[in-house]
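Example 3.
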Amino acid sequence: MTQDELKQAVARAAADYVAANVPAGSIVGVGTGSTANFFIDELAKVKDRIAATVASSEATKKRLEGHGIKVLDLNDVSRMPVYVDGADEITAKLEMIKGGGGALTREKIVAAVADKFVCVCDQSKLVGTMGKFPLPVEVIPMARAYVARELEKLGGQPKLRAGFVTDNGNLILDVHGLAITDPAGLETTLNQIVGVVTNGLFARRGADVLLLATPDGVRTMTR
Ligand code: 5RP
């Protein structure tokens, strides 16, 4: 199976999960990225079962609306049973690195409101120790150089994501060379650096369910 076929299979499983587990008329949070895009296309097939969605990026909002799916402002939503999104790396404890698409801040905010985070990945994303994938850190533009020096003190090699501005008007530093043995601790430490908006570690609030696409089918893992 190709990677796209695996993403397609897990996207279908996630749409089935939503149809089976979420009360009719619910609001669904939707992530960003290529796997999330496959999910949006599958969600469109069961869109009559949900009331609306909340999008984690402008790109996701556009794709949802292209399917005729209603997208709400998060400020108008107090209850969301589920948030579905991909990841760049995920451990068996369902801690993740996210932000390869640069949408980490909005993803973390939408996920915080949801009762359950359902992560959709192909098997290449499951790792023992995170950090091979460079950790994205969203920074306020004027703090870029300062934050980069602080990240170097923590043992990372930050690289500015060239030509990229987030939906929030900020920059991304991709931090290479970290072996992340304490994801929740590092998530907190990075959040203390002045000028950091969000970091791509989703460990304090990891996923609740992982739907993992393998050539033998979609495996379900829970925390
Ligand atoms: C975007 C993300 C994505 O979920 C992550 O990059 C995975 O993307 P893909 O499904 O394309 O591999 O965090 O900010």
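The chain is about 30% helix and 30% strand. The radius of gyration is 17 Å.
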